[in-house]
Amino acid sequence: MQLERFYLPDADILFCPGFFNQAQSNQLFEKLLNEIHWENGTVKIFGKILAEPRQTAWYGDERLVYTYSGKQQQTKAWTEALLIIKQKIETILTIQFNSVLLNLYRNGKDSVGWHSDDEKELGQNPIIASISFGASRTFRLKHRENPSLRQNIELTHGSLLIMKGTTQHFWKHQIPKTRTPVQPRVNLTFRNIKNTISAK
Question: Which domains does the chain possess?
Fold first, then answer.
């Protein structure tokens, strides 16, 4: 298994296009579509409550609480498919993840805007492991201080993207809308929440 490194300033980004083979990816994609409890969420941006242009779900260790974009989420219990994915990723990394945020992009209208995964619960230099199943979508990166520094990565079926080090401090990323007709896509971002508060 070969990891491709992107040599970008202030970033540590690795990519593996075929982390899961075609058969594994197909099976896991179907399980995620059918077994995950997908929700139509909202986020608070600049004081306004907006509908998220995608469906989301939050799974992980028991009773973790995580806040992003003004929204607090409590984890649901790991499914068998999620544990299979999690354990394979952990075989090549030095940490164990305790949670995963899932996004379902139903078509080209679903998207996520420019942001960094820099919430305080993730710690100083978080390791984010992103797995994609289904239709390919373009993952765009731009440097916070020098927006002319950009990188596009095509996230294909079964691919793994790892962001670590100071990446979240200096880079933002997005999945933009596209007018090109596309089939559904599921993305999973595995995280390790620090200083968690047990839900009551």
Answer: 4-191 (2.60.120.590)
**For residue 133, what are the CA distances in angstroms to 48, 113, 117, 159?**
31, 20, 20, 7
**Cα separation of 100 and 84, whole Å?**
13
Query: Looking at the whole model, is its pTM more than 0.70?
Result: yes
Contacts of 61 (CB under 8 A, 6+ apart): 75, 78, 98, 99
Over the stretch 55-82, which tens digit does the pLDDT of each residue have?
A: 999 999 987 887 766 667 789 999 999 9
Give the pairing type, strands 76-77 and 48-51.
Answer: unpaired
Residues 6 or more apart in contact with residue 90 via CB below 8 angstroms: 96, 97
